[in-house]
Amino acid sequence: EKGGWDSFMDKEIHEDPAAVQRTLIGRMDDDGHINLDEVRIDEHELKSIDKIIVIGCGTASYAGMVAKYAIEHWVRIPVEIELAHEFRYRDPILTPRTLVVAISQSGETMDTLMALRHAREQGSKVLAICNTQGASIAREADAVLYTQAGPEVAVASTKAFVAQITAAYVLGLYLAQLKGAVYRDEIHSTLASLKDMPAKIQWVLDTQAAAIEQAARELADSKSFLFLGRHVGYPVAMEGALKLKEIAYTFTEGFAAGELKHGPIALVEPGEPVVFIVPPKRGRDVLHAKVISGIEEVKARGATIIAVAEENDPDVKRYADIVFWRPACPTLMSPLVDVVPLQLFAMDVAKQKGYDVDKPRNLAKSVTVE
Ligand code: F6R
């Protein structure tokens, strides 16, 4: 059932391209029109939505953070992201014009389910982004957008994450289409970029695996890792840090690169591995320059720099000790490729340390208690 792979995690990371592709199938036509008849919430009600709150836990919450950047940009309505267990117990402001988007791979996470129930009791509509047909969260939501990643067996979530981001993007573009918020051309070109992503993920899997394995061998004994990113690279940094801590039991911290000088830089000492998610240089040059200056700052303190960056980025070549390359893509699409080397890296480090990557200690695949 592992289909020739030596772990489910390995198999599932290699299913990232298919997970994205399958999540797009049947949801858009060739002239850039998104069809989400499966979302049974009345179009007029969706048009009247004035706030979105995305909820989830762990990896799903990082997919939700990515969703915030994209949906606010396209739809121009406020999007909040909150951990489901925090949301539920703080009396959040919910109205019939609030759309709550609950993201869950298993569809059985009790924290997320309780938050969903609370939102519905307060009169808000809940749309679930879920990977498991007929799961509790899918059943109790007003509407479901299934991620089509296929069953995920390894405890650490991988292909479900890229599928969740893809589904959130489809939802965002659909709402943009409904609200007329983004010109048809922009929806069209964004969908075209999204369709290109499976091939770009495949490129990372095909060309970067050896470098990632080598890096894992070199760094497996490190006591801790820092992961930094900006904009959509921030949730990717959080997710990279989570993967490594859960399966390799290495202490990691992920944070927004802009926070460095507000505290975390105090942790940087010679040899400390610091992973940077570097945004594309085109388009959002400012972001790129800021991340590069963060790299310079920690490099000056002797850190070992590991970068995830766009192919041939000259600044990264200059400063990074180790680079995992990815093909060029628009900034908003970059999490779909940038997370892939971090998934492989976490798996390779865990294997180096001799751990069972599919069944990390103390963790369960679905957390059905609050
Ligand atoms: C991380 C991981 C967990 C889950 C979280 C939510 O690799 O697996 O952080 O993402 O427990 O689970 P779901 O998506 O099933 O609600």
Automatic annotation (TrEMBL):
Active-site annotation: K365 (for fru-6p isomerization activity)
Cellular component, GO annotation: cytosol
EC assignment: 2.6.1.16
Domain (SIS) ranges: 42-181, 215-360
Reactions this protein catalyses: D-fructose 6-phosphate + L-glutamine = D-glucosamine 6-phosphate + L-glutamate
Record's subcellular location: Cytoplasm
A single BP term in Gene Ontology: carbohydrate metabolic process
GO MF term (any one): glutamine-fructose-6-phosphate transaminase (isomerizing) activity
Keywords: Aminotransferase, Cytoplasm, Glutamine amidotransferase, Repeat, Transferase
Keyword NADP: no
Function per UniProt: Catalyzes the first step in hexosamine metabolism, converting fructose-6P into glucosamine-6P using glutamine as a nitrogen source.
Description of how the protein assembles with itself and partners: Homodimer.
Protein name: Glutamine--fructose-6-phosphate aminotransferase [isomerizing]
Encoding gene, per UniProt annotation: glmS
